[in-house]
Amino acid sequence: MKKRLNTLIFFLVIILILNISFSSATLVCGQPPNSLMGFGMVSFFGGLNYTCNNVPDNFCPEDYEDYNNSNIYASCERCLDPDCTGNVSGRVLSESGTPLSRAVVKALPLRYNLSAPSMEKSVLTDVNGNFLLNDVVTGKYYFSASHEGYDTQLIEVAVKRNNLTSGVVFNLINGTCFEDCTNSYGRCKAECDGLVFNNGGLCRFSTAYSINASLLCNDRLKGTEVIVPGTANGTHAMFIDCCEGVPYWKYYSSAYISTSINDLIKIEKLVKYNDQPVKVIVAYWPPNYK
């Protein structure tokens, strides 16, 4: 009887040791293996266990049956494995349905293991607003789409192993542009040019006389008067009031000083005189100069 009891105690100790070593050796991202929770592990003959991990090793547990349930495959949803990837495609449109080219689409994984390296990826949309992200590590993500002049939008996406997750469509709402091509700070913004608003309004910088007003006025306060380069003819020049109307001609005088004095100090300043722009030139030279 005593021998049997000792044998039973011996086996209980062995089982306890095995359980301790098993649980400590098979943690997946710090959690017990559980594919239903996204901490997958698979077992092979000979006692070999493979788990989801953050190190590329050319082995994806999601290709095999779960170690504890042959009815499901292992899942690395919460312990992202760089060897388990899928593809995601979609489109970025404005609120009115206009395709947005060169919008930035990012895959932002829900991180359950902050010590693991980031698996973020990004891509630009094409001229039709389409995007394709290849080899995205499987798991749950927030996909974001952003474009100048629009609010950023987030969509939750589940990336599956060896699958193409398609039909991810963003509809970005105008966030920083108004119909007069200004932003919320009252400054003209070149990236607002061409935006169509829900009420049918359109932001369009003046192109009269082949002038690129969007570049001349970019980031200037609305109503700022800007001279059009190369238009001054000695008496007049063309001006434009940024984000207001079309270019116009007005009186514009220019002045210059020609001298052989080597150490002449010259200061030029554009000022307003009787509501007209005037260039003032102040010249100074040493009083003893002959």
Helix share of residues?
A: 10-25%
**Low-confidence parts lasting 5 or more residues at pLDDT below 50?**
8-24
CATH superfamily of the domain at 85-172: Carboxypeptidase-like, regulatory domain
Oligomer classification: single chain
CATH class of the domain at 85-172, named: Mainly Beta
Tell me the CATH architecture of the domain at 85-172. Answer: Sandwich
**pLDDT average, as an integer?**
81
Q: Strand share of the residues?
A: 25-35%
SS field, number of helical segments: 2
Terminal residue distance: 130 Å
Description:
The chain is mainly β and 290 residues long. Among the domains are: 24-83, no CATH class; 85-172, Immunoglobulin-like. It has two helices and 14 strands. It has helices spanning 2-25, 213-217, and strands at 41-44, 48-51, 85-94, 104-109, 121-124, 130-137, 139-146, 153-159, 164-172, 225-227, 236-241, 244-251, 265-273, 276-284. The strands form five sheets. A four-stranded antiparallel sheet has the order 5-4-7-8, with no helix packed on it. The chain has a three-stranded mixed sheet with strand order 6-3-9, with no helix packed on it. Strand 10 (225-227) and strand 11 form a beta hairpin. The radius of gyration is 34 Å and the shape is elongated.
